[in-house]
Amino acid sequence: MTEYWIWLNGVLGAGNKRAVGILERFGNPEAICRLSRSEREHSGLFTAKELARMERLQAEDARDIVRFCKKQGIRLIPYGAPGYPVCLSVLDNPPLLLYVKGTMPDFDQVPAICVVGPRGVSEYGKKAAFSLGYRLARSGMTVVSGGALGSDTYAHRGALKAGGVTVAVLGCGIENGYLPENEPLRRRIAETGCLISEYPPKAPASRFTFPVRNRILSALSVGTVVIEAGSKSGALITAGYAAEQGRDVFVIPGNPQAAQYAGSNALLRDGARPLLDAGDIFQEYIARFPDKIDIKRAYEKAPVTAREKVHKKLSEETLSKEAKIVYNHIGTQPFYPDELAETGLSGDAILTALTELEIEQKIKAMPGGRYVTVS
Predict the structure, then answer these.
(1) Residue 189 near residue 168, CB atoms below 8 Å
(2) Which of 34, 134, 300, 313 gives 158 a disulfide partner, CB atoms 3.0 to 4.6 angstroms apart?
(3) 341 to each of 326, 332, 335, 346, 357, how far by Cα in Å?
(4) At what angle do helices 151-161 and 123-139 cross, to 10 degrees?
(5) pLDDT winner (highest mean) among 99-103, 312-316, 370-374
């Protein structure tokens, strides 16, 4: 039966607002697949392109996809099946089929927050995304993002560092190999959370797939946080979906004169909520999810994990390799991030390490962009 869902998804395409109505008319994908050409044409429910795809695509071919998914540990969840999130089913254009790798959290019971922003995020935005992902995950909330470079990556990393659950909703197939530099990150996400897509495993990404994907990001979440957004940022699309779906939209305020905040500040002007600290989110949802959100835990250090090797200088800590390199390089005097270039780490790696050390209360930020170790 699953192959017929794959077939229908390929025929109608992602985000089709007529899909549910067509399903209700005929009962199930197999019944639609078995319609004669004449019945399909005279139903008046399909466009010319859809009719052409019906002739070109064969349900039997989808069996190869089913076998591939089984081999790769990808679960297929059709619309309306057990495990399909109710928060998606109520959309006017719900995904007909979800491909899931990992363990999907119960989005209808555990609150999730979507964190979005640009790939070319500022240094401040990177730190904000990482810290927010960390605090939210430590509190017990699920962190949802798109698995892309920039803001998405830092939000996912923060959640993983906290030992929490994070979910990446992809704008391509799970096994497509898009953004190979983030392949290790995707593997880690699937270990404790999951990867989700409405596209077949090897489907390519395009400029059309991401905007359609964004409706899933916002629908899975009780609220969406915009880290930064220029006037044409894709994050604005996700925020727009969130507002349409009745979800909350939070925005980190930025310099009105800075281009990377033009879209963000426009959202604030139009009624989005300013986000100054993760506590703003906790206070918004603690009454609604009192047994799911642990605010105290959000501000405690993450516990030691057995899988991390510990440097002799930090025998009781569970810092990343990069954070250990930075910590063992700095002295007792205040320092600027630029002074860490001789560690051989990239600028992004240094920033992530500094954020991690600050969260672990090993260093603290000082006025003027300097840091100092905490004794």
Answers:
(1) yes
(2) 134
(3) 10, 18, 12, 7, 17
(4) 40
(5) 99-103
Q: CA-to-CA distance for 148 and 146, rounded, in angstroms? A: 6
- And the tokens for 95? 């995904």
Give dist(CA 19, CA 25) in Å, integer. 10
Is-contact 262 231, C-beta < 8 A?
yes
146 pLDDT tier (thresholds 50, 70, 90): very high
Residue with the two structure tokens 């078995």 = 34
CA distance 141 to 111: 5
Rounded to whole angstroms, what are the CA distances from 190 to 9, 57, 72, 367?
24, 30, 12, 39
| Distances 264 to 40, 95, 151, 224, 277 between C-alpha atoms, Å | 46, 28, 14, 12, 16
Mean per-residue pLDDT, 36-51: 96
8-state DSSP, 152: H
CA distance 355 to 347: 12
Q: What stretch of H or E contains 227?
A: none
* Greatest C-alpha distance within the chain: 80
User: Does residue 141 surpass a pLDDT of 80?
Assistant: yes
What pTM value is reported for the model? 0.83
Tens digits of per-residue pLDDT, 268-281? Answer: 999 999 999 999 99
d(C-alpha 87, C-alpha 105), whole Å = 12
DSSP 275: -
Domain architecture of the chain: domains with CATH: 2-102 (no CATH), 112-165+211-298 (3.40.50.450), 312-373 (1.10.10.10)
Contact assessment for residue 146 and residue 217, using Cβ atoms and an 8 Å cutoff: yes
Contacts for 246 with CB less than 8 Å, ≥ 6 apart = none
Please tell me the distance from the alpha carbon of residue 50 to that of residue 237, in angstroms, as a whole number. Answer: 26
How many angstroms separate the CA atoms of 354 and 87, rounded?
37
Are residues 323 and 340 in contact, defined by beta-carbon separation less than 8 angstroms?
A: no
